[in-house]
Design brief:
Blueprint lengths: L1 H20 L2 H10 L2 H7 L2 H6 L6 H14 L8 E9 L3 E5 L6 E4 L14 E8 L7 E4 H19 L2 E10 L2 E6 L2 E6 L18 E10 L4 E5 L1 H17 L6 E9 L3 E5 L4 E5 L20 E10 L4 E5 L20 E10 L2 E7 L2 E6 L21 E10 L4 E5 L11 H4 L5 E10 L2 E7 L2 E6 L21 E10 L4 E5 L7 H8 L5 E10 L2 E5 L5 E5 L16 E10 L4 E5 L1 H26 L3 H18 L1
Parallel strand pairs: 3-5, 13-15, 18-20, 23-25
Antiparallel strand pairs: 1-2, 1-4, 2-3, 4-5, 6-7, 6-9, 7-8, 9-10, 11-12, 11-14, 12-13, 14-15, 16-17, 16-19, 17-18, 19-20, 21-22, 21-24, 22-23, 24-25, 26-27, 26-29, 27-28, 29-30
Length: about 625
């Protein structure tokens, strides 16, 4: 049908050209003769039907030709082209060269708010005649019939189409394209991020059909695709004119945690967060805001990847250059803590000028701690300049130098043998660090914690933060070392135990634990004795076991190594030996009493002789 309409349009144009080539009177006659409506009004049908006024066959053929050229065939489902001849508040009047003009509701032209008289539009005959005899046309139905052909053609040929943004939906917009609802993703609206989608609702825009799903009748369009090609050409052109050190004006397009994207007029550049300010900042929004105009300097660029690195702080001289010669080593400065690390803290003494306070320069104490134990971010501190290198732009500071070194009079305050109180600050496997005052730490070796307890780790004896009494055992001024003792604050109880638990003394106790090769017993909180297996034997030959109470004899005592060995067997063995010894003594005494003397022997012999003589 479209081909027919095009053919008719060509024929009308040819007729118009022929008419323009003739004279004016001839044109008027030709137009009069070629007016079908007037021809019908003036034609005498009665004479023709009665045969009174016969018509020449040539004129009939001409009449049929005129009708075919000027009137459309108003068949159903046929799309024809019409011309807008008048527009009311609600409707558009369309001339399709039919007997009468047709009406189309303006609602069907919402996608084209610029519709005007003279525009050509496609319509479908919806109702030939309504109750008032009016011809009703449908532009929407005509667009629907042609829509898919046009959409497919636009997609295949890559042509640009107009669309009306109807409403917002999840992830994008709904666009009317040729009467078909197409999806416009949010990322395809523009090359820059869109913060307010609603501003596009109700607008007519140009789009490119980028995807069609024939199975589900889905169409995806893009406005961004239309401008990307131009932008790429602009980028190449702009980058080709760039030079390092060049200063350009741009607009802040996007702000991220790592930097700021600046639109340079068709090409974007990145200002990294470290290039925004000579001072440390936590987030770029502390320096710039969206849509802000600012000058930036070209630091570097990549023509192939179209990447541009920009700088903002480089527009101002480095603060170190403006520092001057008035600041020197040994001067006192004030600043704010901006960054804290395990090894120290960075202090900003002037805008863009920082110094490092190493943790070792925060306290006179040789026992190092974390920087967080001394300062916090945002603290205002006063320090002394220790070193300075303006070429390398480095400065080291010290806090402890603000107070006198406590080791200067250490021999006076902490002589060997003096007693003090200290706070437990840290443990090691071999001892405890005790702080006597800020900057004065001493070490108590694990062997100097207790006279009697066998300690495997200092945590078994004390806790971090506990207060301990100590005695200064050794002092190394040059090495800044103090050796302390805790057990020395008390008398050595083993001096007393040496007499109380001397070898041979007897004590009653209970078997506490069965151990390898014997058992242990506790005489008190300090004295633990070991009983070898064979010394656990009882008088009846059985062995003592855990929980049995018995009497024990000390058979070994070593004060230096705190070693005590006891025996139960020796108790009853000793008694047996004593009994045997006493029995031997009694027997010997008895035997001694019964043994004859020499006189007794002589008397006995005399008696025996006398007896023998009497027998005779």
């Amino acid at each position: 049908m479209a081909d027919k309409a095009n053919k008719e349009e060509v024929q009308v144009e040819d007729t118009a050209k022929q008419n323009e080539a003739s004279t004016k009177p001839q044109r008027e006659v030709s137009l009069k003769e070629s007016n079908p409506e007037k021809f019908l009004e003036e034609f005498n049908w009665h004479n023709y039907e009665e045969g009174i006024d016969p018509i020449d066959d040539g004129k009939l053929e001409e009449f049929e030709k005129l009708v075919a050229e000027n009137f459309v065939d108003t068949l159903d489902d046929e799309v024809v082209e019409g011309k807008v001849v008048y527009i009311t508040d609600r409707d558009a009047i369309i001339d399709i060269n039919a007997k009468s003009e047709g009406v189309v509701s303006l609602n069907e032209f919402r996608y084209n708010p610029d519709l005007k008289v003279g525009d050509k539009v496609e319509v479908l005959i919806d109702v030939r005649e309504d109750s008032t005899g009016q011809l009703i046309l449908s532009h929407r139905k005509a667009r629907t019939i042609k829509a898919w052909d046009r959409v497919n053609a636009a997609h295949d040929e890559g042509t640009i189409v107009n669309g009306y943004v109807k409403c917002r939906t999840k992830g994008g917009m709904i666009v009317d394209v040729f009467g078909i609802e197409a999806f416009l993703p949010g990322s395809q609206i523009d090359v820059k991020p869109i913060r307010d989608y609603d501003v596009y609702v109700g607008k007519t825009m140009e789009f490119k059909v980028v995807k069609i799903n024939h199975e589900f009748k889905n169409v995806v369009v893009s406005h961004k695709a239309l401008i990307e090609a131009d932008i790429e050409e602009q980028k190449k052109e702009i980058i080709g004119q760039l030079e390092k050190g060049q200063v350009l004006e741009g607009v802040v397009k996007n702000i991220t945690s790592y930097g700021v994207f600046v639109d340079l007029g068709g090409v974007d550049g990145l200002v990294h967060i470290t290039d925004l300010s000579w001072s440390r900042i936590n987030h770029p929004n502390e320096i710039v805001e969206l849509d802000q105009k600012l000058n930036v300097v070209i630091l570097d660029f990549d023509e192939d990847k179209t990447r541009i690195q920009l700088g903002l702080k480089q527009l101002n001289p480095h603060p170190w250059e403006a520092l001057g010669d008035e600041l020197k080593v040994g001067d006192k400065v004030k600043g704010k803590v901006v960054v804290i690390a395990d090894y120290g803290a960075f202090v900003e003494v002037a805008e863009g000028v920082e110094g490092l306070i190493h943790v070792s320069e925060m306290s006179w104490s040789t026992h190092l701690r974390s920087a967080q134990d001394f300062v916090n971010v945002g603290d205002e501190v006063e320090a002394v300049v220790l070193t300075m290198d303006k070429e390398e732009r480095k400065m080291s500071l010290g806090i402890k130098q603000m107070t006198p070194d406590p080791w200067t009079d250490i021999t006076t305050k902490y002589p060997v043998g003096s007693r003090h109180k200290g706070i437990v600050r840290n443990f090691t496997n071999f001892g405890v660090f005790v702080e006597l005052e800020e900057g004065i730490d001493g070490l108590i070796y694990i062997s100097d914690l207790s006279w009697t307890k066998k300690i495997k780790h200092p945590s078994e004896f004390t806790n971090i933060g506990d207060e301990l009494d100590v005695v200064v055992l050794e002092l190394d001024v040059e090495g800044r070392k103090l050796s302390l003792g805790h057990k020395q604050t008390e008398e050595n109880p083993w001096d007393k135990y040496e007499a109380e638990f001397a070898v041979g003394t007897k004590h009653t106790a209970t078997i506490d634990e069965m151990v390898d090769k014997g058992a242990t017993i506790n005489f008190n909180d300090d004295i633990t004795a070991f009983i070898p297996n064979r010394h656990l034997e009882k008088e009846d030959g059985t062995m003592l076991k855990k929980g049995d109470e018995a009497e024990f004899q000390i058979i070994e005592f070593n004060k230096e190594f705190k070693k005590v060995v006891a025996s139960h067997m020796s108790i009853h063995k000793e008694e047996e030996a004593k009994i045997v010894k006493d029995a031997v003594k009694k027997q010997e005494a008895a035997e001694a009493e019964a043994k004859p003397t020499l006189g007794d022997a002589n008397s006995a012999l005399q008696a025996l002789k006398d007896k023998m003589d009497g027998k005779k």
